[in-house]
Amino acid sequence: MACIIDKFSDDESDLELSGSTLDALKSFYAERDARAEQFAKLQAEAEERHALNVKLSMDAFTEDWNESQFWYSDETATFLAKQLLADATPTTSIAVISAPSVFVQLKNLLNSDAYKDKPKPKLTLLEHDNRFAVFADEFVFYDFAQPLKLPSHLKGAFDRVIVDPPFLSEDCQTKAALTVRWMLKSEETKGEKPKIIACTGERMETLVTEKLYKSYGLRTTTFEPKHARGLSNEFYCYANFEVKPDEGAGAETPEGKGWTLRELGWKEKEGAATAAAAAA
């Protein structure tokens, strides 16, 4: 046995990490420590802002375009959040899937004076970016590639959902829709259709309205979401409910315009009408 141990020790003494391997290890540990430090900083900032009743900001969460992260403008995120909160009760449950800027505005609204005496619904954020774990129990890690790999208590638990799938592919859209259907309460449970908002690219329109969410009555709305840093793809908002204009808001604001639901095939009809008018 001693002989074997001595031989092992001799072999072990010959093992040396190459310079490139050492550099890679140092880089790995440096990145790990930086992520831990950033997480602690974000968590402390979120807790401090909540305690001081200070608005949260998406500026703390830098967009990562490689992860297809494109935050909404504050105006868009706030408007969408208001629609999710409209007529909510303490028993209302709202899920935000891959739309963290809307979740942040939901938090801001519920913490504002305007909502001080209003019911506080339950919020849940499903997100792939672990930086948002600073929201503790309201955060659930989400990978669209595994659409049902979620805590079992989320099944059939939500009255309202907003979803913004990270990629403009049929696979991503379909899996995100599977998550939405799995999480929503049934009509039998609610006595009414749950509210759904889906924000995604224009080229997903037929898939969204005529296949994935057809049974829920989703249609293209007249509201056009805006992104903080712009977006090259044409972006639509789809929903299964209308929003009446707020007469007390500015006529050019999203609240002042509200939104209506477009008919299926609206684009072709508008195109035909435009062509006919031009030919007349």
Automatic annotation (TrEMBL):
Keywords per UniProt: Cytoplasm, Methyltransferase, Transferase
UniProt KW Transferase keyword: yes
GO biological process: methylation
Pfam hit, one: N6-adenineMlase
Cellular localisation: Cytoplasm
E.C. no: 2.1.1.-
A GO molecular-function descriptor: methyltransferase activity
Keyword Protein biosynthesis attached: no
Major location (coarse): cytoplasm
Class of this enzyme: transferase
Biological role stated in the UniProt entry: S-adenosyl-L-methionine-dependent protein-lysine N-methyltransferase that trimethylates elongation factor 1-alpha at 'Lys-79'.
PANTHER family named in the record: EEF1A LYSINE METHYLTRANSFERASE 1 (PTHR13200)
Protein family: Belongs to the class I-like SAM-binding methyltransferase superfamily. EFM5 family.
The protein, known as: Protein-lysine N-methyltransferase EFM5
Organism: Neurospora intermedia
Gene that specifies this protein: EFM5
